[in-house]
Amino acid sequence: MVIPADGNTPIAAGELDALIPNLSSQEELNEWEMQNILKAEEWCFGRVLKTENPFTDQFIRKLHQKMFADTWKWAGTYRKTEKTLGVPVHQIRETLKTLLDDAQYWSNNGTFELDELAIRFHHRLVFVHPFPNGNGRHARLMADFIVVRNGRQRFAWGRKNLTSAGQIRAQYIDALKQADGGNITPLLKFAR
User: Fold this and answer.
1) How far is CA 162 from the centre of its chain?
2) In order of start, what are the domains of the chain with their CATH numbers?
């Protein structure tokens, strides 16, 4: 995976046209999206916590839709444009299906300790990069859902907002790059 220097996925012109609110700055967009995500967290950690299987295509898309429904018309829809990150568009569904099957197997068979399972899932979901934007935030919330659903505390994720550039985000991007190379330990440590 090639991660841009700042780790942000560029939004294509057609995708940008699907912005719902009338916002004038990146800061306003970040704040607007954060308010959306807080509502999604209430949904995620509320009644659906014990009833939803996170390792389904339906749940992946539904969570993304809940996170960004008030912001982007394409919320919950897989991307249709190529990015500097992620698998080619025509491989999204197949690669995601493999990840979901692998994660269900890991969960059913105790292949990894719970934190490692969630972080491996997070890493591979970021690698697939299925949505036009919000993939890192979505993958982190997915990992949180997996551990909370199983009685653990949410991950700390550096205890900072990872949307804005800074030292903590740089550590996160570095940990993702190390996981790309096969070393998952820095990402596990960063998450907790």
Assistant:
1) 12
2) 24-191 (1.10.3290.10)
